[in-house]
């Protein structure tokens, strides 16, 4: 028995020695911590400083182009078939076109959208889409300024990042082909999709909550609004879909749940951060974009640009945020491009306006029927 303990002790000493030398110099990396809630509630965002630096570098906003010379004829007088930016001077128009080329198609150049033998030609679908995207950008910077994008605004680069097709777009996910007959339904789960953080949650929550402009405002909420139940309530499957959406939003913004919620009372608006109200509006802005700007372009896109089910590419939180709580590190990108903050008329029709979202003076007021309830 004595021999056994001697051997055991020697073995432990040996492995501890190996561990000591093998892990020499290992220590926890420096952390960057931001408190965004009440002290003692654990409402903090914690990242490594290295990760923060990498994210900032990956989300650097490009420098704006040099200001255009003032004066001169309007673009609508100089060029043919200018339908959205005809009120700009020719110099301002050319400056914005050059910037858009750098933001969207730096390798392809002007030929990505234009027939350079006839710049007025609308035969390329990219030009027709770009015209509508200009209206969308103006709409976001004007009608959603107060409730979501603020003075920071967005430009084409916010989503495109120098690529003709933004990296973070999505289509309705039909899931795997399933045989007919009597077979258990998986409720769209257990497929480890990136849209829900590779969890086993329902993988197509984006279609249910972000694709349609007319989605019921109470669709996401699964908590009861009273202390005791007054109705049947929602099934556990709806709660799983809501968790899937929340995971998408957290990953899209590079934050955790406490960025918006006090996790001791997740549903209580009075204990939530101001970011929760901003996110509430952001959900509705995404629906507005997908329903009023992207969906109508279904017939404009060629079949190879559509999803498996024939739906258009759509946006979500990650499309703009790219893992940052503020896109492009919060740089006010529209200051240098005031033309992108005005809603103009194209093809004789005004760009659709976002439905006004009514928020109570104190989010969470139970009696307010229009209170945001994500």
UniProtKB/TrEMBL annotation:
Q: Where is this region: Disordered?
A: 54-74, 352-374
Q: Which NCBIfam families match?
A: photo_cyt_PufC (NF040706)
Where is heme 4 bound in this sequence? 148, 317, 320-321
What's an example GO BP annotation here?
Answer: photosynthesis, light reaction
Q: What is this protein called?
A: Photosynthetic reaction center cytochrome c subunit
Q: What does this protein do?
A: The reaction center of purple bacteria contains a tightly bound cytochrome molecule which re-reduces the photo oxidized primary electron donor.
Question: Which of this chain's residues are annotated to bind heme 2?
Answer: 133, 156, 159-160
Print the keywords alphabetically. Answer: Electron transport, Heme, Iron, Metal-binding, Photosynthesis, Reaction center, Transport
> What positions does the entry give for heme 3 binding?
246, 257, 260-261
Q: How is it modified after translation?
A: Binds 4 heme groups per subunit.
**Native organism:** Methylobacterium gossipiicola
Pfam families documented for this protein: CytoC_RC
Q: What is the lineage of its organism?
A: Bacteria, Pseudomonadati, Pseudomonadota, Alphaproteobacteria, Hyphomicrobiales
Q: Where is the composition biased (Low complexity)?
A: 54-63, 352-368
- Tell whether Electron transport is among the UniProt keywords: yes
GO MF annotation: an example:
iron ion binding
User: Gene Ontology terms, cellular component aspect?
Assistant: plasma membrane light-harvesting complex
Task: Indicate which residues the UniProt annotation says bind heme 1.
Answer: 97, 110, 113-114
